[in-house]
Specification:
Helix content is 39%, strand content 18%. The chain has 790 residues and is α/β, with parallel strands linked by helices. The strands form 7 sheets. The protein has an 11-stranded mixed sheet, with helices on both faces. It has 24 helices and 29 strands. A hairpin with a 2-residue loop joins strand 21 and strand 22. The protein starts with a strand and ends with a helix.
């Protein structure tokens, strides 16, 4: 299979050259792209200039010869020219073997076999890099089926339009220009004997004649023999079409563009110093150009043309025909030194070099066939690439979602959930609460007052507390403390209070055989069943309470028969006073007022296969500097001793009062989604604060329209993950260079996170980890597919 190798050179010999190597099969996109660097080598310019000056001083050129310096023999001058050419070759190979370029060369050698036909394009706009004799690179010694060509960094392919050529002949326009002092009759003879060719000769034409032929006729090959030269900057040149007229390519610009549009494929300038001409011809997007890089002797030009036309017209590829014809010139270098260095191809990278048979197609029947085949090949490649990307993205999406459904990504998804929770902007505490805390100091205070302590709150302290609170008229009082014992007979008023006060709610613990307290904790005997609730939380494997359990069916043997959560009962009591009712809607979800609390299932977004028994929702914690700042707080001791400031008094009236233990000796401590970022001594918070967050979650959704967490159906999540997988595959197909792909991949991951976080701020939990995994894996798979040697 023919291979195409492209070396993109960005820089110059003085400052150094950035190199991008591309390798691919002919007609396809590059499958390998590697970057490297060629170190500065300004001495190459000096060596080339010295060789060039010596070479041009030789006689018998197709321009006025420069005499050899007096005192030096012709043989010495020839030997000096050869030595300088050898030195230039050594310097070039030394430069091309530098450490920063060696990985590219090794990649090149690894991807090619010695019998591969290889086109090597040198893409650069730097004049000195274009002048270098690239065929001297030792790479071409090993790869006998390879040939080098120059190419402009910017190019455009103009497709061949339908033309009318009778008989299927190769149409050649041969311009025989000013031949003063040179012999071009041999060039004419070689063209006249070409098989299957129809050659029109313009001998020393006027500009108008040449212009008319280019405009009016359809040509496959344009040939010029005569005097020509290039400007020193290598960007332009002149051809001498007759004894008086000298033209630049720009003066034939529109005629040449027309010829290219009508099918001109190859331009051969068998004349001197043609790199400047080639530069201008490249701007006109002529597909293939053959020129002589320096002044050329008559015999050298004729020998090259003879051998090239013979090989090319007999079916040899254009590149190999040029190489063989160029290397045959080595046999006359005893009299014409460095002849092998002269012929050079200049190639439009968008065009495939034609074979002689391509010119012979009868256009009445098949004129557009080569172009159609080219388009068909490109379309087939694009379709195969689309198939690879589509199939890869679908398979990867299926695998990722399959792995996810097994719960293997759950830990990562929950960590991502917690991370995004911690990134949200800070909210204000909930002003509907006051939390009365009982810490070690409050427990010691009760002991000093000789109160009858049972657990953390004595009957005497509770009785005093409730009496003190009466004067402030709170709306709801939640006692988040287990009381599995009866009130002491000495505190009959407290027993009555617990039984009659409809604002007061208490807790018990449902027995859970799989938890640390399988037997549960009974409720306070004095509190009626309608004001009893369970305090149980649902913790994930990492002991973080992300889910809010609102309802459950207790086991028959449980000492706690409460079916509703403490936080739900407190919230509903508070809302009922505002005339807001709750019920179960037809879809089986809890609806409070106009707000629907969507039940969490065992497979919900990042949760996969969890125990979703009862009625669970995803808790939307308030984003605070510390989860314990959910509401204003005051200690039990301060309340009992009337140390309540005026601001707290305002928070007591018509508010929710929560009473809970915060002493470190209690076991009622929990992790929250904020625990990962919290200081070590704040990773666990007392359960009363978790209850406050969950009550606030309900109240804020109903009264403040704060969003509840939502998620997509599974089919939408599949399409979402597939979209990112497809995007990753497309990026990998379009960007083959590893560094650029890595940078683009990182940008896309950041974009994915940004999109997911933006949705998260609106309480949407969409797949982040599966999408990121699919994006990266798709890139890896597609890159592997196109970088694996076929």
């Amino acid at each position: 299979m023919q291979k195409l190798v492209v070396l993109n050179l960005d820089g110059d010999l003085s400052q150094g050259v950035k190199v991008t190597l591309e390798i691919g099969a002919e007609g396809n996109r590059p499958s390998i792209e590697v970057q490297g660097y060629l170190t500065p080598k300004p001495e190459l310019i000096a060596d080339y200039e010295l060789w060039r000056t010596t070479y041009r001083s030789l006689a018998n050129f197709r321009l006025t010869p420069v005499s050899i310096n007096v005192g030096s023999s012709f043989d010495e001058h020839l030997n000096n020219c050869r030595k300088l050419n050898n030195k230039l070759s050594q310097q070039m190979n030394s430069w091309l073997n530098c450490n920063s370029f060696r990985p590219l060369k090794e990649k090149l050698l690894k991807q090619l076999t010695l019998d591969d036909p290889v086109r090597v394009l040198i893409k650069t706009s730097d004049t000195w890099l274009r002048r270098l004799p690239w065929h001297l690179w030792d790479f071409f010694e090993d790869y006998s089926q390879a040939e080098v060509a120059l190419s402009a960094p910017e190019y455009e392919y103009l497709p061949k339009s339908k033309i009318d050529i009778a008989g299927g002949k190769v149409k050649i326009l041969a311009i025989l220009g000013n031949s003063q002092g040179i012999l071009i009759d041999k060039d004419r003879n070689l063209l006249e004997i070409l098989p299957d060719a129809e050659t029109t000769f313009l001998v020393e034409p006027q500009r108008s004649q040449l212009n008319e032929q280019l405009w009016e006729q359809d040509w496959d090959i344009l040939f010029f023999a005569g005097h020509s030269s290039s400007q020193e900057d290598g960007k332009s040149g002149n051809i001498y079409i007759n004894k008086t007229d000298c033209l630049t390519i720009d003066e034939l610009k529109y005629a040449l563009k027309k010829a290219v549009n009508k099918g001109l494929q190859l331009a051969i300038f068998n004349s001197c110093d043609g790199l400047g001409l080639a530069h201008q011809l490249e701007d006109l997007h002529i597909p293939q150009i053959i020129v002589m890089r320096e002044p050329v002797q008559d015999l050298v030009a004729q020998e090259f043309l003879k051998n090239f036309l013979k090989k090319f017209s007999s079916g040899e590829s254009m590149y190999l025909a040029v190489r063989e014809s160029r290397e045959k010139l080595h046999g006359i270098e005893d009299q014409y030194p460095c002849a092998v260095c002269l012929p050079i191809i200049c190639q439009n990278p968008a065009a495939v070099p034609p074979a002689w048979k391509d010119f012979l197609i009868n256009p009445q029947i098949e004129t557009s066939k080569p172009q159609i085949n080219k388009y068909r090949t490109q379309a087939q490649f694009r379709w195969r690439s689309v198939q690879v990307v589509l199939l890869s993205s679908l398979v990867i999406t299926g695998l990722v979602m399959g792995v996810r459904s097994l719960g293997l990504l759950q830990s990562s998804e929950l960590k991502a959930f917690d991370h995004m929770m911690g990134l949200r902007w800070e909210e204000k505490p909930d002003s509907r609460f006051l939390i009365i805390t009982i810490d070690e100091g409050d427990i010691q205070y009760q002991n000093r007052m000789k109160m009858n302590m049972r657990w953390s709150l004595s009957d005497e302290a509770l009785a005093q507390l409730l009496k003190k609170l009466d004067q402030y008229q709170p709306r709801t009082i939640g006692l988040d403390i287990y009381r599995d014992f009866s009130v002491d007979s000495n505190n009959a008023d407290l027993a009555t209070r617990l039984e009659k006060d409809k604002r007061l709610f208490s807790v018990c613990k449902v027995s859970a055989p799989l938890d640390n307290a399988p037997e549960g904790t009974p409720a306070a005997p004095e509190v009626p069943e309608e004001r009893l609730s369970f305090s149980d939380f649902v913790a994930d494997d990492n002991e973080i309470a992300r889910r809010q359990l609102l309802h459950l069916t207790p086991p028959l043997t449980s000492p706690c028969a409460a079916e509703y959560a403490f936080n739900l009962q407190i919230a509903l009591h508070y809302l009922e006073a505002k005339g807001i009712k709750s019920y179960i809607n037809p879809e089986g979800n809890l609806q409070i007022g106009n707000v629907v609390f969507k039940q969490l299932k065992s497979h919900t977004s990042g949760y996969q296969g969890v125990d979703a028994s009862g009625f669970q929702v995803l808790a939307n914690y308030r984003s605070l500097s510390s989860p314990q700042n959910i509401a204003a707080q005051i200690s039990l001791t301060d309340v009992l001793n009337d140390r309540i400031n005026s601001k707290l008094i305002e928070l007591l009236k018509e508010r929710i009062i929560l009473i809970g233990v915060t002493a470190p000796t209690t076991t009622d401590y929990w992790k929250t989604p904020f625990s990962a970022k919290a200081p070590f001594n704040q990773k666990l918070i007392p359960g009363v604060f978790v209850q406050a967050h969950m009550i606030s979650h309900i109240l804020s959704a109903v009264l403040d329209h704060r969003p509840l967490f939502w998620w997509w159906p599974i089919w939408v999540e599949v399409f979402w993950v597939w979209g990112w997988s497809l995007l990753g595959g497309i990026l990998a197909w379009c960007i083959r260079q590893p560094l650029y792909l890595a940078i683009t991949g990182l940008i896309m991951l950041l974009t994915l996170f940004g999109v997911c976080f933006a949705i998260f701020t609106q309480a949407g939990w969409v797949p982040l980890v599966p999408s990121a995994l699919a994006l990266v894996v798709a890139q890896v798979v597609v890159v592997f597919k196109y970088t694996t040697k076929k």
